Amino acid sequence: MSATAQTATATVNAAVTAPRQSSWRNLQKLMPHLLRYRSRMAMGLLTLVLGGMVGALLPLAVGTIIDSLSGSRSMLDRLVALPGPLRHLLETFYRPLSRQTLLFYVLVLLGIVTLKGVFSFLTRDILIGVSRDIEFDLRRDLLDRLLELEPAFYVRNRTGELMSRCTNDLNNVRMVLGPGIMYSGTTIVTMIAAIAIMVRLSGPLTFFVCLPVPAVAFSVRYFGKVIHERYEKIQALLAALSARVQENLAGIRVIRAYGQEAAEIRAFEGQNREYIARNMELISAWSLFFPAIEMLIGMTFLIVLWQGGKLVLLGSISLGTLIAFYFYLGQLVWPMIALGWVTNIFQRGAASMGRLDHILRVQPEIDDRAVQAPAGAAIRGEVEFRDLTFSHPAADVSNAAHAILHNINLKIPAGSTVAVVGPTGSGKSTLAALVARLWEAPPGTLLIDGRAISEWPLASLRRAIGFVPQETFLFSEPLRENIAFGVEQASDLDIDRAATIANIRAEILDFPEQYATLVGERGITLSGGQKQRTALARALIRDPRILILDDALASVDTQTEERILRGLADVMRQRTTILISHRCSTVRHADQIVVLFEGRIVERGTHEELIGRGGYYADLYQKQLLEEELERV
Questions:
Q1: pLDDT digits (tens, 9 = 90+) for 91-112
Q2: How far apart are CA 307 and CA 303, in angstroms?
Q3: 129, 179, 240, 572: which could form a disulfide with 8 (CB 3.0–4.6 Å)?
Q4: Max mean pLDDT range (20-24, 48-52, 311-315)
Q5: Which residues contact 373 (CB under 8 A, 6 or more apart)?
């Protein structure tokens, strides 16, 4: 099994075996969002109640019309709970076998249907609208939190899985807030109103109607638990499946280059079959649940026909009353069926809210909410490392041998240029990331302008830093937006100047759409060197006090590198520059060169001083000179 498949399987197993909170506790986490829209929720619930009460009058109107046509006494005589004036009005217009009575109650029926339609529209417009607003709030909160979290979080969580939570799970939560609440309220109001009127019409017949209710409640509880457990497993599998698809699409060129299409298809097929199998288990639960509900409802209709028919023959109730009972029973059929549908919505929503809450509850390890910048303070650019030993959060920090950086002591005066060289894995990029506070340095080991880096607000710190990372990332936007990224109001002149210094301007002007050229996803339409130079222009346009170039010229040739360095000469004199490179030609003019080896500083000095010592740097320089000579030959 591939490493990716193992990771995916582990993710699914962890999600399946992790302790779960109850559905109710997960749904309680939505209360703050509902309270934010409490006035609209109250209005929506009011229209829902009014619609349910108006709808409960419809069977009465139908039953009264049947009694009028059959020449019976009005069933309204039994409804002593009706308000006096309303009951008097309805009885005044009731005459058996009368056209006026038929016309009046048909108009009443039309009015009831119209009012119910109006209230139904208002209920849906308000409650579904609130659910969409809360969905917007949750999506915004999720993105805000994801943007706050440090790289360590994304080491532990795969991108595809996070995308699944922000799409499928968020949609399930919205269904709870909209249709879930609306149909639950409709079910409750309809059942209360219908049963209250049915009791007034015939207590014994209502008793027979309610006989299957405990069986319905037991079925809902049992199947709801089964559905919730199975759906949690399905969501975890879907997240793993999404993660695999995202990784395959992002690495499609690598997969094709190594001829691994068939292997990846087989691995995907295994996960896909597992996902389908778990869905079939869920469908099996549903296939048992709905027939059980329908059987119980069918039994109720038979009971009403049997017992109601006997009461009509005995003269205990009128034919209109029996017809009204059938209509009320028809009104109760949807709530009974809706119990299963709503149960499914709430169970899915609860499982999804638990997964979303995991993201919303994660607190960023790099947190500066309590930090305030000193009045009038602006970062000048002095950087100092004091006895810094650093391990990644995932590493065993109790074992010093696993640390990436060991006892780093280095002071970089403001406005100077320091170059960092060393073999792969020596900790160069980690050192740069610590200055940008992408990783959290141990307290007191990293200072900016004499203050601990944690005492500077992140916004102020990162506004003062221009960072070109080793792995260049460009957005699927035009070149203009990619260069101006991070600058609120960048003029065309500023963009053009940054592109000129980065030695990318001439190539951009050769494109048919010049600065409006779309770079494609992750800059796929650009070469490696063009991407690096675009990223360099993006850092330069910010006019940072601290410029960090993490192997930013690795993808360009020696001649292009020379032109870029000449353009950067004036820029670097005005700001602190940390230059990381594996080329001696790139770093030879730095004020100070630091050599890292296995996380330790083993050499430091100027280019000439290090050449004279005959150490690692001198060996590297000689090798690169030889390579250049061979290239000329």
A1: 666 677 778 778 887 888 899 8
A2: 6
A3: 240
A4: 48-52
A5: 456, 457, 460
Taking alpha carbons only, the member of 471, 450, 564, 575 closest to residue 523 is 471
Residues 102, 68: contact at Cβ < 8 Å? yes
pTM of the model: 0.66
- Phi/psi for 594 (5° steps) reads -115, 130
Q: What CA–CA distance (Å, rounded) separates 358 from 388?
A: 32
As a whole number of angstroms, the distance between CA 333 and CA 318 comes to: 23
Decide if pLDDT at 5 tops 60.
no
For helices 319-361 and 58-70, angle between their N-to-C axes, nearest 10 degrees: 170
Count CA within 13 A, CB hemisphere, residue 41.
16
* CA–CA gap between residue 94 and residue 318 (Å, rounded): 15
pLDDT for 64-93, tens place per residue? Answer: 888 778 777 666 666 544 555 666 666 666
- Rounded (10°) CA dihedral 27, 28, 29, 30: 70
CATH (residue range 24-361): 1.20.1560.10
- Say whether 388 sits in a helix, a strand or coil: strand
Q: How many C-beta neighbours within 10 Å does residue 162 have?
A: 19
pLDDT band at 119 (very low <50, low <70, confident <90, very high): very high
Of the candidates 11, 32, 5, the residue with the CA atom closest to the CA atom of residue 353: 32
Q: How many residues does the chain have?
A: 633
Amino acid at 623: K
User: Alpha-carbon distance 466 to 537, whole Å?
Assistant: 10
Domain 379-464+545-633: top CATH class: alpha beta
Domain range list for the chain: 24-361, 379-464+545-633, 470-543
* Contacts of range 359-363, beta carbons closer than 8 Å, 24 or more positions apart: 359/142, 359/145, 359/146, 359/162, 359/165, 360/141, 360/142, 360/145, 362/145, 362/149, 362/153
CATH number of 470-543: 3.40.50.300
Q: So what's the pLDDT on residue 121?
A: 92
pLDDT digits (tens, 9 = 90+) for 251-278: 777 787 777 778 888 888 888 888 888 8
Q: Do domains 24-361 and 379-464+545-633 have the same CATH topology?
A: no
Burial of 203 (0-12, 13-18, 19+ CB in 10 A): exposed
Q: For residues 575 and 573, give the distance between their C-alpha atoms in angstroms, rounded to a whole number.
A: 6
In this structure, the number of other CB atoms found within 10 A of the CB of residue 326 comes to: 16
